[in-house]
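hey team, just a heads up i'm posting the complex here instead of the shared drive bc the drive is being weird again. everything in one block, sequence lines first with there labels, then the predicted structure for the whole assembly after. its two chains so it's a bit long, scroll down
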Amino acid sequence: MAEENIIFVGKKPTMNYVLAVVTQFNSNNLDKITIKARGKAISKAVDIAEITRHKFIQTAKYDKINLETEVLQGEHGESNVSSIEITLKRQ
Amino acid sequence: MAEENIIFVGKKPTMNYVLAVVTQFNSNNLDKITIKARGKAISKAVDIAEITRHKFIQTAKYDKINLETEVLQGEHGESNVSSIEITLKRQ
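-- predicted structure starts here --
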């Protein structure tokens, strides 16, 4: 999957990411986009996917939802953080 | 699905819910359990599922993951909130 098909969710407002997803779908005429997030940003990733689906691209369905655990190297050793990958596919 | 197969995630610490999931799997000998959460608790629900799978019940796989939007009636009118339902199935 090319990098342009992946949106990484961070600390910006939810609607910034929704706009990024919608823009990718429309300008680049993609049929699949994956939204990735870790830790507390997981809730925001779900919001982004749901807002995109309900308000902007009604033909988008969930193609795949993966949950995983990533091991991060921090100052105080390793820590585990959950992650989500939500793939939206336009019909 | 009987009520005992569903764990609703709220404000308690993550490990309380992990313990509830593991207990349901083991004491009641269930093969499927669904973890439900809304809004900011969604990240916690993913943590609970991942910790259960990695540390306690290694044979549990994801059977189904649903994302939805619920409409809540509040003091200031309606508001939308995202929700997740994660179903773990023991092989």
